[in-house]
Design brief:
The protein is of the alpha/beta class. The chain is built from 13 helices and 29 strands. 16% of the residues lie in helices and 19% in strands. The chain has an eight-stranded parallel β-sheet. Strands 4, 6, 7, 10, 11, 12 and 13 form a seven-stranded mixed β-sheet that branches.
Length: 640
């Protein structure tokens, strides 16, 4: 309105309106979606006269991916949209400029010539149009600046937060990202206004002591079997340390230590959660499993007996619905338990499992390799006992990996003429969403492998049963490969977590999850401008539908507790320092309050790990190399 233009007159194909006049108005572009004007600066007098001296003037090079002067339209775009990109250079400096463009979906690189769109007396503005893509993809781009014999590059800087970039003598492959998503991408409205509360069922509340798993229960053939409440009878007992020496009765007791929390216990505390403002519950796996965490599924179609029955599940779902609360389930579709009806390594089930026989109907669901007889746990492809090994997740032999391309596997999870006969569809009749464990290991996504249609098929089945169902993946890095409209709705936003927690750190925190080698990265202190860059970077990379559906968490069953990660003494104290009964957590509590204020006011669904609202943190520990560990210390019983 300030320049007398009606934004509605700009065409709906995302083509910017550009004008060149002889009057006082300089050329400009308008992003029709936002109305933002990106105007070339007015003439600034005599040019700097760099000339063609075989030397690119780096100080004059520039591109800001968040400014519509340099990129129009800004941010993610829908398919069929052309995007204008501009590189600023000293007037008269470059003999040539090019755009290196890479299509992540088709694995094709293009080199596009640029031309001067405008000169203002100081700068030349080189311009190129990225062609419209008919398919969702991620474009990666960087600029090639040439002055005679000198070729340099302008690309994102090492922080990889986009915005302003940096000039390089040789390319660092720090390309800018341009996301192209489907125009019909929709995510559930309810999640965009939700407060999500994550519950680790075994540790939340014991509502029915009769279904507790007693000590000594068979557990993957391990001597002694299961452990009950860290070898005590009391619920409010800190998790024993499985990394303790061999004189400790809980040595090695990770996933076989059971406390007895169940669905009935959760149901009893729904009013408490409702009063907190919680509107959705995310449950760690509740299907039949040998372990306390449930990520080694025994039977996808059966509720874990230590959590209750299917009737208990339906009662919980009904009570949630009565409070207008939603339920998100955890789906582990990359692997199952070796002690499952599908694999049956220990011959405990009536059905013949894949490990038991080469003629099992489940045999091709897994990846077997024949070995010397007597050296493997499973039957070989020729029917020889103990003559085959198998692929497992991260080498854990309790977690044999499923073959996601196998028709039988797909039929079980989602590919069936009746969606209610699938795991993905069946449970959505009474629940409202799935969280997908290690989802990238099942299908690398649209840009990773566009021929793999696993999550596309899963989405179709789930949405057919419940068109408001939410699908979120576990992905610690930037997750655009799955968030272009045909697969997931969102992810657990660990990138957001690292940014917010780092904002409130005064020193660098590292542990087994947050370090230089991880996608989450170390929690290194951020200035407010650095934090701003991190958040705007997420906004620039993700389609708005996904951004507003993110699970904005701080911690989970896979991380240390938020309160612990915000304590500044983690770099100086050893584990025993945190055992002092009157340890002063006040500074960390104040930081957590500040972090929550940010969390509650950002796009996406604030997600609270059970107990963080009361500052739940128990004894912590390091491994033998001195690195802070999260499992199982982050899974303390809720101290009712």
């Amino acid at each position: 309105d300030a320049i007398g233009l009606d934004n509605r007159s700009i065409n709906a194909a995302n083509i910017p309106f550009t004008t060149y006049t002889d009057g006082d108005i300089v050329p400009f572009v308008v992003d029709y979606r936002t109305g933002r004007v990106g105007a070339f600066p007015p003439p600034a007098g005599e040019p700097p006269e760099p000339g063609h001296d075989n030397e690119v003037w780096w100080d004059f090079l520039g591109h800001d991916s968040r400014d519509t002067l340099y990129r129009t339209p800004g941010g993610p775009v829908t398919t069929g949209t052309e995007v204008i990109l501009r590189l600023r250079a000293a007037q008269g400096d470059l003999t040539e400029a090019k755009l290196r463009l890479y299509n992540d979906r088709t694995n094709v690189q293009s080199i596009l010539p640029m031309s001067i769109a405008y000169s203002d007396g100081t700068y030349d503005w080189w311009e190129v149009t990225v062609p419209a893509s008919a398919q969702p993809t991620v474009w990666w781009y960087r600029f090639i600046a040439i002055d005679g014999t000198d070729t340099d590059f302008y690309e994102d800087d090492a922080a990889r937060t986009m915005g302003w970039g940096q000039a390089f003598d040789e390319s660092e492959d720090f390309s800018y990202q341009l996301t192209v998503y489907t125009p019909d991408f929709e995510t559930p409205e309810w999640i965009k206004n939700a407060i999500v509360y994550q519950v680790f069922p075994d540790r939340f509340r014991d509502g029915d002591p009769t279904n507790n798993k007693p000590a000594g229960t068979f557990f993957y053939g391990e001597e002694g079997g299961t452990v009950y409440r860290s070898d005590t009878e009391e619920w409010n007992t800190y998790i024993c340390d499985p990394r303790a020496d061999t004189n400790d009765p809980c040595e090695g007791s990770y996933s076989k230590n059971f406390y007895g929390g169940d669905l009935e216990g959760l149901e009893a505390k729904l009013d408490y959660l409702d009063d907190l403002g919680v509107t959705a519950i995310y449950l760690n796996p509740i299907f039949e499993s040998p372990s306390n965490h449930g990520y080694d599924t025994t039977d996808y179609m059966t509720i874990n007996s230590m959590f209750g029955s299917e009737s208990d599940f339906l009662n919980l779902a009904n009570e949630l619905e009565a409070r207008d609360m939603r339920l998100i389930l955890d789906g582990v579709f990359n692997h199952v338990s070796s002690d499952s009806i599908y694999f049956d390594r220990y011959s405990l089930y009536d059905e013949v499992g894949a490990c038991e026989s080469n003629t099992s109907p489940y045999r091709n669901w897994f990846y077997f390799t024949d070995v010397t007889p007597g050296t493997g746990p499973c039957m070989s492809s020729t029917g020889v006992a103990n003559a085959a090994t198998y692929v497992s997740w991260w080498g854990y032999d309790s977690l044999p990996k499923l073959n996601s391309t196998n028709p039988g596997v797909r039929a079980l999870i989602w590919d069936n003429t009746d969606p209610y006969d699938t795991v993905g569809g069946n449970w959505m009749g009474n629940a409202d969403g799935w969280r997908l464990d290690v989802g990238a290991d099942v299908d690398p996504g649209t840009t990773g492998d566009p021929t793999n249609d696993y999550w596309e098929g899963f989405r179709e089945t789930v949405k057919e049963v419940n068109d408001e169902a939410y699908i979120t993946g576990e992905e610690w890095g930037i997750a655009n490969s799955w968030l272009l409209g045909g697969e997931w709705d969102a992810v657990m936003n660990y990138q957001f977590s690292s940014a917010v927690l780092s904002l409130w750190r005064d020193s660098t925190f590292t542990d087994n999850d947050h370090n230089a080698g991880s996608s989450a990265g170390p929690l290194a202190p951020l200035s407010m401008s650095q934090f701003d860059d991190r958040i705007l970077n997420l906004q620039e990379r993700y389609a708005p539908q996904a951004l507003y559906a993110m699970m904005n968490l701080f911690g989970s069953h896979d991380t240390n507790r938020a309160l612990f990660m915000l304590d500044e003494n983690t770099s100086t104290l050893d584990p025993s320092g945190y055992l002092i009964p009157d340890y002063n957590w006040t500074p960390a509590i104040n930081k957590l309050k500040g972090a929550v204020l940010v969390q509650m006011t950002m796009p996406g669904a604030p997600t609270i790990y059970y107990g963080d609202e009361i500052g739940l943190v128990g004894p912590v520990a390091k491994d033998g190399s001195g690195v802070w560990q999260d499992d199982p210390y982050n899974r303390q019983p809720y101290p009712w």
